[in-house]
Amino acid sequence: MGALALVVLGAALRPGGRPSPALIRRIETAARLFAAGRAPRILVTGGAPAGGPATEAEAMRRALAARGVPEGAILVEDRARDTLENARFSIPILRAAGVSRVVLVTDRVHMPRALALFRLLGMPAAAAPCEAPGGRRGAIYRAKEAAALPLHAARAVAIRLRHGRP
Fold this sequence. Notes:
Blueprint: E1 3-9, E2 13-14, E3 18-19, H1 21-35, E4 42-45, H2 56-66, E5 74-77, H3 83-96, E6 99-105, H4 111-120, E7 125-127, H5 135-163
Parallel strand pairs: 1-4, 1-6, 4-5, 6-7
Antiparallel strand pairs: 2-3
Helix pairs in contact: 3-4, 4-5
Protein name: DUF218 domain-containing protein
Pfam family, one: DUF218
GO cellular component, one term: plasma membrane
């Protein structure tokens, strides 16, 4: 078995580049897993919202460092705009760092899509889900994920057929 890393998928930023509650859940989960020795590296992935001052990845990097994760243990992917790009742009960075398998950190509802995309693009992945909101907001989130999974999976297969592994 090769080297392992946690991969924290981005989520919305608040004004001024502050992490949203969803992103804070992911950051805190990753920091706990890192402190427990689950993996020696963390890759944070997420680009800048339209017109935003910072990338999701940079906000996560700062927040993880503030929670005691050494800067040298954090890898950064700062171009991704969606879950497919999280996988597509992260995998080459992970491979260059000698990582051959990952544990994904994202909301439980988002996890099936994230796992499918990383695996379809050739990166073995396990799950470390965070809890997402319930109620009406949770129902909307689940509906969005149900619609996005087949579309992103088809795009990932097309990328793999056209280009091989990222």
